[in-house]
Amino acid sequence: MPSPTDLLSDPEIATAYDDVRSDKSPTTWMVLKYESASKDNITLHSTGTGDLVEMCEALGEDEAAYGYVRMKVGNDEYSERVKFVFVVWAGPNTKVMRKAKMSFQSGQVKQLIRTYAVEIQTGDKRELAEDIVTMKLRKAMGANYDRQSSAY
């Protein structure tokens, strides 16, 4: 059984993770993918300075990937907070064996990507729509003073 350091041996992963976490870096997201359909090594596929929609463009319908994105959440400029989202992506056409291995390997990825407010496991990009993810982050933050989403 490979260790997390074997699976995630690409040194660029740690650098990209630190960049996404840093307020001083323009990098707001990264996507990790498997080296190939037959190998379990995970490599840094891409990074970007845009939003969640931009990150989703890097997620293929027939592949497994892990995304990490920095988002700002708040009702106004004074309550705005930076939060992180970890995405475990298995596109609708991902092979069954890859999906099965991901349940174990995602735990290994989390040993490197440790800090996030919300984890989303999905194969449907609609679940990664900015408004849906923002609502999940708000719920994770606790108090929500946004009357539009109030249950009252």
Quick rundown:
This protein is 32% helix and 28% strand. The protein is of the alpha+beta class and 152 residues long. The protein starts with a helix and ends in an 11-residue tail after the last helix.
Topology:
Blueprint: H1 4-7, H2 11-21, E1 29-36, E2 39-48, H3 52-56, E3 64-73, E4 81-90, H4 96-112, E5 118-122, H5 130-141
Parallel strand pairs: 4-5
Antiparallel strand pairs: 1-2, 1-3, 3-4
GO molecular function: actin filament binding
Keywords: Actin-binding, Cytoplasm, Cytoskeleton
InterPro entries: ADF-H, ADF-H/Gelsolin-like_dom_sf
Structural description of this entry:
The radius of gyration is 16 Å and the shape is globular. It has one domain (4-140): Severin (3-Layer(aba) Sandwich). The longest helix has 17 residues, at 96-112. A hairpin with a 7-residue loop joins strand 3 (64-73) and strand 4. It is built from five helices and five strands. It has a five-stranded mixed beta sheet with strand order 2-1-3-4-5, with helices on both faces. The chain has 152 residues and is an alpha+beta fold.
